[in-house]
Please model this.
Amino acid sequence: MSLSSFQNFLWIVGTALKLILCVLVFARGLHRRLPLFSLYVVLVVVDDLALRWTYHQFGYTSPAAKYEYWSSLGVVIVARALAVAELCWRGLRHSPAVWLIARRVLAFLAFAMLVYAVVAAAKNSSPVITFLLTVERSLDFGIAVILVALLRLGLRYEVWLGGIERKVVLGFSVFSTFQIVNNTFMKQWMMKYFSWWVSASVVSFEVAMLIWITPLLRPLPSMKPPPTLFSEEESVSVLKQALERMRRIAEEMKRVARSKWK
Amino acid sequence: MLSVLLASALLYVTFAYLKEQKARERRIERQRDLPREQLLPHHYRSFVEVENKLWAATAEGAQTAMWDRTRMKLRAAELQLAREYVQGLQKDFEMGSRIFAVVMSRSPEIGILRQLEWQRIKIEFPYYTWHALICFRLWTGQVSPSELRRLTDIVATLASEVRSMLNVFERSDNVDFVESLLRNS
Model:
């Protein structure tokens, strides 16, 4: 069995977009700003080319194609998780305490995801495939939640992402949402319509790539680091003063609120 | 099916937050050339003026009653005035809150951040409660001068603490930081 002409078309478009994205990432110097995201893009291109070569040499349903598909999926999943973690670091690195909290939450989520996938895999007759699919599903959901949390923290603490980082967030979010929807609808009939499931996944990734490519068509604006406030010891003392002021405001609020009911 | 709904909701929230980030960029662009005073809470200062206009608009009989306990039914012009004033207070509160947020975000210790966050919630809760109550009254075409004064008190306290905090920063040779804080938040 070989790929249908529609699937071939999607693959060609996908490969072309991946190559364009990879070239633009290095041409615009995004690899210096987001190295793990750039690594992810490179791995996606390598995976695509290796998969195409395997399908061409051994056929779409050959055992070689199966091994290549599932093993590369594992590598790309890890790279995607690292790219999202990098986005979080990039967004929160100037807020040390916020990043410390976020790091713990990310580590806990990664651990919970792995435990869930191991438990699911242990119950199944194809443990490796089940493990990878469960990790992928959990990761998609985890990414959607983490990115919303990252943006919410940004709004709460006035920590802002640059234009390109925002597009990367949007691309990941769109791809993960498509994947969650896709997995939900295809879960029961996945093996029967496996090729459709793969095609839908390819299309969603192509949409994400278009979102990433668009801002890279122009040179990236430089990011100005926020000005340094104080040394660590000084900032602790200044923040304690700020805390004292906030306490006074909170007390005043209480007084104002009580005066209403007198 | 639940996961599809949840994923769609998450995507929607992502879009909304990204839009807010974009709006923030536009706001920063706009405030680049604004005078410094405009970057600090200032709308609350027009309370006396607003109160005087409301007083003048009140019927003779109502003026003699206990002004503080009055809940006035407003005409279109005064309603618009009160609405604009409450919107101004909201802007003031957001300005003050943003300045505190930037300072808090630089916290090197989780312990201090936790305490600052707790105080921030204690400030936000009564403000938003009063704000919601006043907005509800305005929606029904009424206003209570005493409630308006209380909301003004809250914002004025916040504004005064923000100003004195910025003065402390400036006195300790952090003029550039204060300028950047005001222009970029």
About this structure: Residues 127-157 of chain A form the longest helix (31 residues). Chain A has nine helices and no strands.
